[in-house]
Amino acid sequence: MKILLDFFKNIFKRKTSSNFNDYSNIVAAKVVEFSKHPNADRLRVVKADIGNKVIEPIVCGASNFKAGDMVALALPGARIAQNIHSDAHEPFVPGKAKIRGIESQGMICAAFELGLSKEPGQGVALLKSDIAPGSQFTPEMIQ
Fold this sequence. Notes:
By secondary structure, this protein is α+β, with helices and mostly antiparallel strands. The protein has one domain: CATH 2.40.50.140. Helix content is 11%, strand content 27%. Strands 1, 2, 3, 4, 7 and 8 form a six-stranded antiparallel β-sheet that branches. A two-stranded antiparallel sheet has the order 5-6. The chain starts with a helix and ends in a 16-residue tail after the last strand.
């Protein structure tokens, strides 16, 4: 019985601990510039600095940021807690994705997608301005 109890505790612990404190491949990025997506009215095409290089293009649907803002950027292979298009019980793993004809090189994250808010649709999570581009993301970076 103890073995069975330990087994279920382990499964539960794994499920909840993966709810999602894994921010690997999510970095602080400085928005360098952005433009309107040529094939979509509500999307932006973003260029972002992650310290050692500039990532572009990144297709993003949020509009609550400007050039110079710091944001959380999920690079391909990151595990996102959730997004509006995924099952809430499984992480979303963004990769390079063609969105309306432009291949996005990552995903600018909202607090909801990082598992830090229960409310979708609040725009991207803006980070403190003194964070160095390329720093590993932590929840404490959010303004």
